Structure formats: C-alpha cells, structure tokens
Amino acid sequence: MNQSVIGIGGVFLYAENPKALADWYAKHFGLSFMEWEPGACYGLEFPHTDPDGTKASTIFSLMKAKAPLGEGRPECVVNWRVADLEAFCRALEANGVAIEKREESEYGGFAWIRDPEGRKVELYQPAVEP
User: Fold this and answer.
1) Which alpha helices (DSSP H) does 18-84 contain, by range?
2) What is the reported pLDDT for 74?
3) Cys-Cys crosslink for 109: which of 5, 38, 85, 114, Cβ 3.0 to 4.6 Å?
4) pTM for the complete prediction?
5) Cα-flanking dihedrals φ and ψ of residue 92, to 5°?
6) Mean pLDDT, consecutive 10-residue segments, the chain of 130 residues?
7) Which sequence spans correspond to the domains of the chain?
C-alpha cells in the first residue's frame, strides 16, 4: 500500500451540552466557535496547506449526542499543540482547571486535563530541534 494519512480532517465530539462545552473550550483554549446548527452543533476550522499545496482545513466540532452518554462510552482524546505548555497550564490552573499529569519525552512536553464532560484532553508542546 503506497497511500498514507496526511493529517486530521476533523475531530467530532458528541456532548450532552455542546453549547456549554463550546463555551468551556472558548474560555480555556481561546477558540472561537460558530453555531453551525442552532443549539446542536458548534464548530471551527483550522486552515492549513497540505504538502502538495492544496488548501485544506481541520474541523473541530461539538455536536449534541443523539442519546445520553453513559459511563461506558468510548474515550476520545484530542491532542492540542501549544506554543508554551507551562504558561498554558498555569493559565488553566488559575481558572480552576486541574492538570492531571505532566510528562516530558523525546517528542516534547505533555499535560492532561479533563473537559467538563469528563473527556481526557492532551496538551502538547513539541520538543525543540537541536
């Protein structure tokens, strides 16, 4: 097989309350959501250019769950790239968001938090190339 994945087309999270979740991400991550479907879907686009020069975007969408999300729902982790992990974590903690764990690796720094509906969120600052 000579095909490969070139990026993420979108991340779609089902939520009990997508408006409240969008507000939380807006407050703590500085994201600006558009209401794509009144009361049921909030989203945004991160535009980029693919390696072949094609203009594209990655979608992040919060959608109303069609049924209640129970304890057994599958876990979804979104990895968010940040420029300054320490400063980002300090700002989250100042706003009452607990940092569950931090870790350094050869790839960079990581920290994990939970959103208001209990989903794990991963923050990532890439390692600086020598």
Assistant:
1) 18-29
2) 55
3) 85
4) 0.73
5) -60, -50
6) 61 90 95 94 90 82 80 70 90 95 91 89 80
7) 1-66, 75-130
> Which segments of the chain does DSSP mark as H helices, in order?
18-29, 85-94
CA 47 to chain centre: 15
How far, in Å, are 18, 74, 85, 127 from residue 40 at the CA level? 6, 21, 31, 38
Closest by Cα among 77, 53, 60 to 22: 60
Closest among 15, 43, 47, 17 to 31, alpha carbons compared: 43
How far, in Å, CA of 46 to CA of 116, rounded?
Answer: 23
Tokens of 29: 């991550």
| SS3 of residue 31 by DSSP | coil
CATH fold of 1-66 reads 3.30.720
